[in-house]
Amino acid sequence: MILGLGLDVVEVARIQRILAGPPARAERFLARVFAPSERAYCDARQDRATRYAARFAAKEAAVKALGTPEGVRWLDLVVERGSGAPSLALDGLAADAARRLGVARVHLTLTHDAGVAVAAVILEGTGP
Question: Which residues bind Mg(2+) per the record?
């Protein structure tokens, strides 16, 4: 059963402006929003702003799918990249919210084209 659905679109230029802006501001944003593994992945790519935008969209989509629970931090939501499709790891209050909803699986898809990054998150489970 589908327990939650979230969709988000991020303009890549918005993230590019942050990355190209004052270094201290960019670092604060990256440290507050992205886990070290996400940063390592994005920073190793030529299109890093696009990669960051897709991950930011994934986090926004996940929060929407969870019902916008209070207190969830960006770092409670981590996009992981194994050998296949990206996945979303939940920690902290995000994991607590998922448990309360009865979430068994989190599905994530990312795409980017024409200056935007899009993410969709589907929460699947049996319910509370």
Answer: 8, 60
